[in-house]
């Protein structure tokens, strides 16, 4: 009986730990600071700055020094972000005549905002000493452009004896040009003011009575140098020489660009203070990111606790799938709060599973998760192009994983007198699915640095096995007012909109209206055409249904070439366009007549087809502010595609290169080409998840939208290219190299390429064009699965 009792105690301890962690994680402190102008001695109750748990409320006092012009910008951002999370108290200090309604302000008598702020800084320290010296263990002098990690500062200060005279911060000795001019001896230093300087109570007690002497005996114009000198002289201590302080009190040397880009860096993750954050927006953004890290850390701790519960309950005979209904005794359920409730602690059957690459067990061959190889490229059998560049999302995920792995490896590096640095990912394997999660096997190149005893630097390779478990998607609806008061005006408005929409939906397509179409940019379709009469008939029918009948603001320019195979095709196409114009032109209002008339740009009888030259002819007919869409006759689209063209194309900023869905050959699917003659967009989109019907054409760049002005800035198409292909690829590469424009490259479910046979004539194409043509021809025939089945069926005929 001893063993079950011991296990029961362990389980109770773990469950209590989970409950308390959940309780604290869901606790929100609300406080209303007393904002007032004070110049005399303050009582602690005058300000409530950063209310925290009883254990932390007397740990740290933070004095933030600012100027009057920054009170409602930088200082406000400090107060509204990390200022309210300080494990103690925070006050903002400014010059004598400063006032603010937004921050807990102390205006210092006899000071102004002149620079350097030496007098202001010393006066602030004197004020803090006179009012708060016996109430807090530690005192931090900070600027208004620093970000403080309250959780990490508390962890650091709890590990240090505050009864000793200590001066903590990033050690400074001055720049190279200042050395020898700061009146510092070889063994003297100062704590740099930007990242913040921390004094223990004993240090401030020793220094404060002599502040007036320090003010009148200044050797330099540097405020932090003079504070360091004063601390050294009267408290008898220097700033800590510890090299790690360069990292945890971090000063970014990028100036105004600091913390404006990617925040997923080891410096941001490891630092206690981050400096300088010059713009309030960046302070809020940084605060949001840090809170995300805290949430991530809490979730990881929750998973560890769930695993402890699962392993402990296993000792009592409970399986991991039955823990929701497990009990620890009579009327004592293991999880009293059930799934769906607000404080539900999570599903242990998912979160409590032990880590293992073999955790997922496929039931049959089709359920096996295939591994993809990660090297300098991504190698995958799932794609028609087995080798491709590593996508930005996977690259970012790998960076996150390697950074977190290195943090775990170096968690106890101080005690062991070594540090391990990440150098490179040699190769890795990757697999995932939405239910199982993601698995990674990484071969890492590391540098082992030992700095105690026998010092050494050695390259090592280590395998890292990583597993990310997905917990599923859970939705909980929360309303601020569970019983909203009736709003007659809002109800009438909703009823009116409902009636209008019903009337509009029941009108014939030609007469229906869409208020969202008003004042939209006109999309100019530019389509080269040579032959292909029957295909153009299908396209024109679709264009009329999608654009003309729905009053879309569009224009179609057809650049028409004569076909060698069928000379009569040219005249037939002209007749079809004229008939369409005469039929629909009279039914349109005058506002739309300017849009929807189809324009033909004719070419000479001897002119050879060139897509680049054809598009350039159409471009020359437009104004610089016109929105252009390069189109092919084999495309089927819907209205949602037009919406994305307008939204994703911004003049002087963005160009849109959608990734279309390309259908495979119908002959290989035994459905016949007639299936594609009938335009049923819902039929095509319903099969976009079927890997045998088609594929997302990531290597196609022919369909694109941009403004003419941007087209000219980007250099346009190379009109010297004739025949099939390469002009769009070359143009796309030029845009990517430009760096001024953002390329929107995304799959578009409203854009489908209908299969057609590709002709690759070696007499008309150069080697590069021929290679691309054959590659496209082969990739559009069918999926690998379809081609494999055909090979297995017919290969004996060729033996």
Describe this structure in words.
- The chain has 799 residues and is an alpha/beta fold.
- The chain has four domains: 2-22 and 295-351, no CATH class; 31-245, Spore Coat Polysaccharide Biosynthesis Protein SpsA, Chain A (Alpha-Beta Complex); 370-468, no CATH class; 520-769, Spore Coat Polysaccharide Biosynthesis Protein SpsA, Chain A.
- The protein is built from 25 helices and 30 strands.
- The strands form eight sheets. It has a six-stranded mixed β-sheet with strand order 3-2-1-4-9-6. A six-stranded antiparallel β-sheet has the order 16-15-14-17-18-19. Strands 22-21-20-23-28 form a five-stranded mixed β-sheet, sandwiched between helices.
- A hairpin with a 7-residue loop joins strand 15 (378-379) and strand 16 (387-388).
- Helix 2 packs parallel to helix 10 (280-315), helix 3 crosses helix 7 and helix 5 (201-207) packs across helix 7 (223-234).
- The radius of gyration is 35 Å and the shape is globular.
- Residues 18-54 and 503-518 have low confidence and may be disordered.
- Its main location: Golgi.
- GO terms for molecular function: glucuronosyl-N-acetylgalactosaminyl-proteoglycan 4-beta-N-acetylgalactosaminyltransferase activity.
Q: Mind telling me which CATH architecture of the largest domain this is?
A: Alpha-Beta Complex
Biggest β-sheet description: 6 strands, mixed
CATH fold-level label of the largest domain: Spore Coat Polysaccharide Biosynthesis Protein SpsA, Chain A
What is the total domain count?
Answer: 4
Helix content: 25-40%
Q: Please report the distance between the alpha carbons of the first and last residues.
A: 74 Å
Overall outline:
globular
